[in-house]
């Protein structure tokens, strides 16, 4: 995979993860807690895929094959970090809605 493909893969999986996290909050708000947890799990799988691709960049750099840092690469990293943060917050929201509904 070239750098552009890697970047787009990170952005795609990160975007999917963030969407799943948003849907998880909405499901929990609608008292569909099991669905909310399924969506959190789905988001975590998407993030894992993005992380694997990111790790390939890091490993290549450790081997001396440094990728050029472009605005697109920075953008992909931004998407990934925001998706991770959003997923973590969504998990907290789901747990909060779950406790409120008991």
UniProtKB/TrEMBL annotation:
What residues bind Mg(2+), as annotated? 78
Keywords, comma-separated and alphabetical: Magnesium, Metal-binding, Phosphotransferase system, Sugar transport, Transferase, Transport
Which Gene Ontology MF annotations are present? metal ion binding; transferase activity
Q: Which residues form the active site?
A: 75 (tele-phosphohistidine intermediate)
Cofactor stoichiometry and binding?
Answer: Binds 1 Mg(2+) ion per trimer.
Q: Supply the Pfam families for this chain.
A: PTS_IIA (PF02255)
Does the keyword Magnesium belong to this entry?
Answer: yes
Could you tell me the Gene Ontology terms of the biological process aspect for this record? Answer: phosphoenolpyruvate-dependent sugar phosphotransferase system
Stored InterPro entries: PTS_IIA_lac/cel, PTS_IIA_lac/cel_sf
| Cofactors (names) | Mg(2+)
Recorded protein name is PTS lactose/cellobiose transporter subunit IIA
The taxonomy runs: Bacteria, Bacillati, Bacillota, Bacilli, Bacillales
């Amino acid at each position: 995979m070239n750098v552009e493909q890697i970047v787009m893969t990170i952005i795609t999986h990160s975007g999917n993860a963030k969407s799943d996290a948003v849907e998880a909050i909405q499901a929990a708000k609608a008292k569909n807690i099991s669905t909310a947890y399924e969506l959190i799990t789905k988001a975590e799988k998407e993030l894992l895929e993005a992380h694997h691709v990111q790790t390939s960049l890091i490993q290549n750099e450790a081997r001396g094959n440094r990728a050029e840092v472009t605005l697109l690469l920075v953008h992909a990293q931004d998407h990934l970090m925001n998706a991770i943060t959003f997923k973590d917050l969504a998990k907290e929201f789901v747990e909060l809605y779950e406790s409120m509904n008991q």
